[in-house]
Specification:
heterodimer; A: Phage tail protein beta-alpha-beta fold; 22-stranded antiparallel beta barrel; 5-stranded mixed sheet; 18 helices; 12% helix; B: mainly alpha; 21 helices
Chain lengths: 1115, 471
């Protein structure tokens, strides 16, 4: 593989042929990504004038290339055999010129992917004496189509042929030992197959993933992978398919441990919950109003770029796997600096499938998905146990004799019901096995100049809670038109989404119901309320099933469409210019209707105050214009890639909403049927932002050994204050391909790749609304001052407000041994965020408490490591077995906080529950609690340990210390895939080590229990009951649950993310049915979860085990 | 290569030409400051904003500063145990609850001042304001700025008899900025305050509608040809010319400048309408009879030199006997205060229905729009009675007593100060002035307060939120 006589003229001068296949491949890749359009079936239109006298054939090719821009691919030695050419033509078609040149010579040519491939006309007997062998065979692509024009060469020699129209080749060669045939074709993986005596060698050529194999797709500039200094992870569609089939975010997280989906124990497997995503830690501090809210999570969300256009997290979640060609995760400064003020949280670049030339091809994939509720983590008391517990706790005793008698009677009544066998499993009531389906159909085809692709995907996800679902319909239409120098592409996508929150409400409502209640009465009607007897100890309790039976709803939907138009222009071989215009519009509504019969209105008599509905509507519109110029050239051992990008964007979100109250008839539930506004008048808000960016990048590589990257971007944004409108960002990097050094090349042949690289740079994030830098007045629309309009100042503006900047160092290495059998990718990073956007406290005498400013430093350090190893890699027998291990680690430290945040922390300290504390020197994910010595065996009371070492029975919120960290020390992925012919099996696991968790079940279901509701079994077993008991939880009748270290547990978790099997039916069989490809697959997601923290999982919405069965085919 | 350069140039041109303007976004749901001040209308709207915000510190509901917390400093109201009110009555300023309440009030004062300063920063930058509008807008904003600063120094400043000349008490804020505001000595602070008052008096004196028309004539929404803006009406609810004079009288008295106090109090007291009637008159028993006239207000609108109004104020539900936050005091206190049963001011007190032990104040009852006084004519009478030579003072005091329906007792040098102070108690309950009067007169043993009080009690410490950030 070290040498090949096939080369690309004009990109590499003949004298440098020795530089090896890698280089050549890379050049081919570049041609690909430059979308070389020359010719493309328009050969006849190309005119050539030639006046040559006795010049070598190769120089003729050079001349033609100069005039037409078409590259020639040829075997140099072969061409040298044909002497000099003399020819004189004017303005003749290229075909006629070539015909003239090749006349009388044993050469022919073929037009292939914008290049002219020069081949030997026919097989001749080799001029050697002695025995010879004839090898022949068929070459096909993966879909079974014959491939003409594939070059077949004997490795180490120049003997070779090309396949004919039917993909057939025949080769007569001297019988030597160690004959290896090399099959190569533009756009396909080169294959080497040893000759072992078989006369017929049939080969299936594998397409290169696409032309971007050797390219890092950054969404703006594509950089050669060989000489890229950044940290980027590319995920192919095959990997995505294997790792899961529910949503892309989950699949990505299953693949790369540095793409962290923070476990949300409340939302469980709710199909409508948006996850919290982190790449390389948290580098933003929320504003004061959001210190404890979910906005905290949004600040860490990376930037999603779909085909060059920014999309939201929700849009990303709703993308169909089948639409995606590849996803690239950009992590370090070198790869994100070109996103300037948006890149600091990492960038996820998604590339969708492009239309391919070829005959009309239809492909379909579909699956049936199941959501099976997983309730194993719940360990509740049964009816008899619960009643006994209530009795033990004295719930049926009272000093008041009348009440005591009443309670005793109540007990007797409940007891008799328990004896009669009442033991309702409330957990099962709101859940179901959700059965959903997923279909994707794509029609694709076209010729060299016009290609089209149309896809429709429909995905219905029925969640494990009854009535909860999410359905998405996506349609895409892609058209491309290619000419010699131009290519036009247009993508139109339409998305429709409809989702419902479960009308059964919150799962925890059911979990807490006492098992001795029966949801239905003897007549089969739903019981409205329990505990109707007025005993004071047991207040009335609503049956959650009652609300579920009404026609209340909580639903949302959106319609979005986007259009992406791009023109690419290749004025010269070395320059490519692209202009891109994207437009997106999205309408979304959220509606909640609460029936007038709902338990919420039980106490209200006024009919006009019952039943409410809210209606929120948002309208997003955004557009962007992009102009990119790429330059690529080589001189000798130098390779230079450069690019300039100009971008202008605008995005606008308008929200309108209203809440109305008073529905007389629950079936007349339109807004217009309401009696009045619910408290407030309709609301409106608008946020618009504009950005202009100018970016440039240079990548230089010397001899493929040493390389350097530099990028710079300047961003102007309307969100920045008027005094700091322009933000500069930059990155630089250096790298060294050690394996290309001669001392390695000559001595160590098992080292396939050994690269080290370093990058440093700055990128930004701007998570604030434009009005924070702008002084504004609010106009009061509901009040006047004696008829005069009232305007009041909204807050203190900060014209100096600017982006926050993240400075990131990254040191990485890529090692690959034994022809990629074993490979390691490791990156270490140090990410320092400065000027974090935060609330700044002002002296009160300024008239404003705070303003939005830049203060606060956050440091994230960590590493990510990926190891993959092929246990079996036998291409001959088509057996492969590989293991991938990945882990990531991140340490977060708040270095500096603004006074405002510190004050907020000091004044709003809460004694109960889990809440976020921001403290200098600690992590944003630190869990703070007051340590305890334990439960005093004598009294059953908790003894707290103060900071100064003293012990006390009194809880003091100021004695909190850091007792753990929510994020695991090591977030690991383990996966293995096995492939044997067309059968492949995949298993993926998650391993989390070294983190801590606040055990909500301990806090609320074991210790701080309300015995009016059902509780965890551990109430029975783990709590202090009598003096002398040594238990972690205090006595049953103590009921103040402060935030202490007793609820914080070390978390080590092992879970199975996905298990999948795919089987491709034998081609002989499916050919008969008319298919090119037919695959069956089965998978199961969230198969098991083993953790050291024993707590109820999925408190508001249960987790689900997710099996799915599907097929995919094309014809 | 030429093409390449051409492309490059085109790019640079496109980039450079996309100017700053495109990056400036005007929100649709709010008005940018600079935009608001592009029209005269905007100036008036911003000014109305200040009057609407007066509610924050000068409203009447319990949570508000002036009628409740400020008066608790003078131990007036019945307070529940451990409440902020109780801590204030005990002058326990270090309490966290008190500190945070005081911080809130302190901030609101300076927020009002920031509103004034924003108007003032634009009013001289534009040239489209008609002179009359300019005079009124700038005059009112300056006077309001002075008014708020005066209340600030009366709370957080020293007793006027006990000024530490070297100490910087408070910032006199004249700009809106993120920078820390400079603190001033008492003298400098008061000098700035007086300058604002002088300037305001001059401006308003030129264009004040009240100088031409009577209060009643202007208390209408029917526009005259001469005054084509709503803001030229209801002048009693704007910082008008007489309001500035009254404020100057109040200020002069605080400063011990009796001469000026008399001058300005007289300007207000003797102000006449075109027909010779008094511009402002003292209210009488008939004026608080709500049954005979819907325009009557128990807060005595005819006495309001300046005040503000709260529209759609539901006295009963937000303040009164049936709900909301109630303020009340022992019946015995009320009886002590109004030993003279004929004093109609006692009628502003009414027994609480649930618990007969307490009485609640009835002053802010209204039909629809509540008039909240900031300076009333009564105060001008009391200033005159306190500062004029005794014989002249007695004339004024007699007139005062007659109007209030109480028996007139001759003022003597010996009893004058105390008698006037008691009149403050009777007249201004629920209006916040009683604490200031005690502080100004350096009363050591306040009525209804057991311990003696001095500077430490009269001068409130800066909120810790403020002092922490300054260090």
């Amino acid at each position: 593989m070290k040498k090949s006589k096939f080369c690309l003229k004009h990109l590499i001068p003949p004298r440098q042929l020795g530089y090896g296949m890698l280089r050549v491949l890379m050049v081919i890749c570049f041609l690909g990504f430059f979308n070389a359009m020359a010719g493309q079936g328009k050969l006849n239109q190309l005119r050539v004038s030639l006046n040559v006298n006795n010049i070598p054939l190769i120089d003729c090719f050079n001349e033609i290339q100069k005039q037409t821009g078409i590259d020639f691919v040829y075997n140099e030695e072969l061409c040298k055999q044909f002497g000099e050419i003399t020819l004189s033509v004017r303005n003749a078609s290229i075909e006629s010129v070539l015909d003239a040149i090749f006349a009388g010579k044993d050469l022919k040519y073929r037009f292939e992917d914008g290049m002219i491939v020069v081949l030997k006309r026919e097989q001749k007997t080799l001029p050697q004496e002695g025995k010879s062998v004839v090898i022949s065979g068929l070459v096909k692509d993966m879909d079974g189509n014959a491939l003409p024009g594939v070059t077949v060469v004997v490795k180490g020699t120049s003997f070779g042929v090309a396949t004919d129209e039917k993909g057939h080749y025949a080769l007569e060669i001297p019988d030597m030992s160690n004959i290896v045939l090399v099959f190569s074709f533009v756009g396909m993986e080169t294959q080497e197959i040893p000759y072992k005596g078989l006369k017929e060698i049939n080969v299936n050529m594998v397409e290169k993933m696409n032309e971007m194999e050797g390219v890092v797709v950054t969404g703006i500039f594509n950089k050669p992978k060989e000489s890229f200094t950044g940290a980027a992870v590319k995920v192919t569609k095959e990997e995505l398919k294997m790792a899961g089939n529910r949503n892309i975010l989950q699949s990505l997280s299953n693949i790369d441990p540095s793409f962290v989906l923070v476990e949300n124990n409340v939302a469980g497997s709710d199909p409508n919950a948006l996850p919290e995503i982190r790449m390389r830690g948290v580098s933003s501090i929320p504003t004061m109003d959001n210190l404890q809210s979910s906005t905290r999570a949004e600040l860490c969300t990376p930037l999603f770029i779909l085909d060059g256009f920014e999309i939201s997290l929700e849009q990303m979640m709703d993308l169909n796997n089948d639409e995606i060609e590849s996803i690239t995760l950009l992590k370090d400064a070198s790869s994100t600096a070109m996103y300037g003020s948006r890149g600091a949280n990492g960038v996820v670049v998604i590339k969708s499938i492009e239309p391919q030339a070829g005959r009309l091809k239809v492909s379909y994939s579909g699956s049936v998905n199941f959501e099976i509720p997983s309730l194993a983590s719940y360990d509740l008391l049964n009816a008899a146990e619960k009643l006994q517990l209530e009795r033990d706790a004295g719930y049926y005793d009272d000093d008041d004799l009348i009440l005591d008698a009443k309670l005793k009677a109540l007990y007797a009544q409940k007891y008799s019901r328990v004896l009669a066998g009442v033991n309702t499993n409330w957990l099962r009531i709101p859940v179901r096995v959700g059965i959903g389906q997923n279909h994707y159909i794509n029609v694709n085809g076209g010729d060299k100049s016009f290609r089209y692709s149309m896809g429709i995907s429909y995905d219905v996800l029925n969640g494990a809670m009854r009535g909860s679902d999410r359905s998405t319909l996506n349609g895409t239409l892609r058209l491309s038109y290619l000419t010699e120098k131009f290519s036009f592409n247009n993508n139109f996508t339409l998305g429709l989404n409809h989702s419902n929150q479960s009308n059964y409400g919150n799962f925890s409502e059911y979990v807490r119901m006492n098992p001795y209640y029966e949801p239905y009465n003897q007549e089969g009607q739903i019981v409205k309320q329990f505990e109707l007897e007025n005993t004071k100890k047991f207040p009335k309790l609503n049956n959650p099933l009652w609300d579920a039976s009404l026609n209340s709803f909580n639903r949302s939907e959106y319609t979005s469409f986007s259009n992406n138009f791009s023109v690419t222009y290749n004025p010269f071989k070395t320059v490519q210019a692209t202009m891109n215009f994207s437009y997106m519009k999205r309408f979304a509504t959220d509606e909640v209707f609460t029936s007038p019969s709902d338990s919420e209105f039980f106490g209200i008599t006024d009919i006009l105050k019952k039943g409410k509905r809210s209606y929120f509507n948002s309208e997003d519109e955004s557009w962007s214009v992009n102009v990119t110029v790429n330059y690529f050239n080589t001189w000798g051992r130098h390779i230079l890639t450069a690019g300039v990008n100009y971008e202008a964007r605008q995005s606008d979100t308008e929200n309108r909403g209203m809440k109305v109250l008073g529905f007389v008839n629950e079936s007349m539930n339109d807004i217009s049927s309401a009696d009045s506004y619910d408290g407030e008048v309709p609301s409106y808000s608008d946020s618009r932002s504009r950005t202009i960016g100018l970016a440039g990048t240079v990548n230089y590589s010397y001899d493929n050994r040493y390389f350097a990257d530099f990028s710079y971007r300047i961003d102007g944004s309307s969100s920045f204050g008027s005094n700091s409108r322009w933000a500069p960002f930059y990155s630089m990097g250096l790298g060294w391909n050690i394996n290309r050094e001669h001392f390695i090349l000559d001595n160590i042949d098992w080292l396939t790749l050994f690269r080290i690289k370093y990058s440093y740079g700055a990128s930004g994030s701007q998570n604030f609304s434009p009005s924070q830098s702008l002084g504004t007045y609010d106009i009061n629309t509901s009040l006047t001052y004696h008829g005069g309009i009232i305007a009041t100042i909204t807050g203190l503006e900060n014209p100096d407000l600017k982006w926050q900047t993240t400075y990131q160092h990254n040191i990485g290495t890529d090692i690959s041994l034994f022809e990629n059998r074993f490979s390691i990718t490791a990156n270490w990073y140090r990410k320092l965020t400065k000027n974090s956007i935060t609330d700044m406290a002002l002296p009160l005498s300024n008239g404003f408490e705070k303003y939005t400013g830049n203060q606060g430093d956050i440091l994230n350090t960590g590493f990510d490591l990926d190891i993959s190893y092929y246990l079996i890699k036998n291409q001959e027998k088509n057996v492969m077995w590989s293991i991938q291990i990945g882990t990531s680690h991140n340490k977060n430290t708040l270095l500096r906080l603004s006074e405002a945040v510190k004050q907020n922390m000091a004044t709003n300290a809460s004694s109960y529950g889990l809440y976020y504390v921001y403290q200098e020197g600690e992590s944003v994910d630190a869990i703070y609690a007051v340590p305890t010595v334990g439960v005093d065996p004598a009294t059953g009371k908790i003894l707290y340990l103060y900071k100064d070492g003293t012990q006390s029975y009194k809880y003091d919120v100021n004695q909190r210390i850091v007792c753990g960290d929510r994020m695991p020390k090591f977030d690991g992925r383990l996966s293995t895939s096995f492939q044997w012919k067309s059968l492949s099996v995949y298993a993926g696991f998650t391993l989390r080590l070294g983190g801590q968790k606040y055990n909500d079940t301990y806090a609320n279901k074991v210790e701080n229990v309300d015995l009016k509701y059902n509780v965890d079994r551990r109430v029975y077993t783990d709590r202090w009951k009598k003096p002398g008991d040594n238990s972690a939880f205090y006595g049953l009748n103590e009921n103040v649950s402060y935030l202490t270290d007793r609820y914080i547990q070390d978390e080590n978790t092992f879970a199975c993310n996905n298990l999948s099997i795919t089987y491709g039916l034998p081609s002989k069989l499916i050919k008969r049915w008319g298919f090119d490809r037919f695959e069956l697959n089965a998978s199961i997601g969230n198969l098991f979860y083993i953790s050291t923290v024993k707590q109820e999982r999925g408190t508001s919405y249960p987790y689900a085990i997710q099996p799915s069965f599907g097929l995919s085919c094309s014809f | 290569m030429k093409k390449f350069i051409y492309w490059g140039l085109l790019l640079v041109t496109m980039f450079a030409s996309s100017c700053e303007e495109w990056l400036t976004i005007r929100p649709k749901d709010k008005i940018e400051k600079a935009k608001l001040y592009e029209t005269e209308e905007g100036f008036w709207q911003a000014l109305n904003g200040i009057y609407a915000l007066l509610y924050d510190n000068y409203g009447v509901v319990n949570s508000s500063w002036q009628p409740y917390y400020l008066e608790n400093l003078a131990g007036i109201w019945t307070v529940s145990a451990n409440s902020v009110g109780e801590k204030l009555a005990k002058h326990a300023y270090k309490d966290a609850g008190v500190d945070s309440k005081l911080a809130e009030v302190f901030l609101k004062f300076y927020k009002l001042i920031a509103h004034c300063n924003t108007i003032l920063s634009y009013v001289d930058k534009v040239d489209f304001l008609p002179e009359r509008s300019y005079n009124l807008i700038k005059g009112e904003a300056l006077a309001l700025r002075a008014f708020f600063h005066f209340d600030l120094i009366r709370i957080w400043g020293p007793m006027p008899t006990n000024v530490d000349e070297g100490y910087t008490y408070l910032p006199y804020v004249t700009q809106v900025s993120k920078q820390s505001m400079p603190y001033y000595t008492y003298t400098d602070y008061m000098k700035l305050l007086q300058e604002d008052l002088i300037a305001a008096e001059a401006l308003l004196g030129k264009s004040e509608p009240l100088l031409k028309y009577s209060c009643d004539e202007l208390n209408t929404s029917t526009l005259m040809d001469e005054y084509d803006r709503l803001e030229f009406y209801y002048r009693q609810h704007h910082m008008n010319y007489f309001g500035v004079c009254a404020l100057r009288a109040r200020f002069a008295l605080w400063m011990g400048d009796k001469e000026s106090a008399v001058t300005y109090a007289k300007i207000v007291k003797d102000a006449k309408n075109a027909n010779g009637s008094s511009k402002f008159r003292l209210g009488t028993a008939a004026d608080i009879d709500m049954s005979n006239n819907e325009n009557n207000t128990r807060s005595l609108g005819m006495e309001h030199i300046i005040g503000h109004y709260i529209s759609y104020f539901n006295w009963d539900s937000s303040y009164g006997r049936t709900g909301g936050d109630q303020i009340y005091m022992d019946i015995s206190k009320v009886n002590d205060l109004f030993s003279d049963g004929n004093d109609y001011r006692k009628a502003n007190w009414i027994q609480m229905t649930e618990d007969k032990k307490y009485m609640t104040i009835n002053k802010y009852i209204c039909y629809n729009n509540l008039w909240v006084p900031l300076i009333r004519l009564s105060e001008m009478y009391l200033i005159l009675a306190e500062t004029l030579p005794l014989d002249e003072a007695n004339v004024v005091y007699k007139e005062f007593c007659e109007a209030k329906g109480c028996s007139y007792e001759v003022l003597s040098e010996g009893n004058r100060q105390n008698k006037i102070l008691m009149e403050y108690y009777r007249d201004f309950l629920g209006e916040g002035q009683i604490f200031y009067a005690n502080k100004r007169m350096a009363v050591e043993s306040m009525l209804w307060i057991k311990e003696d009080v001095a500077e430490g009690q009269y001068m409130l410490p800066l909120p810790s939120r403020e002092s922490d950030l300054l260090n």
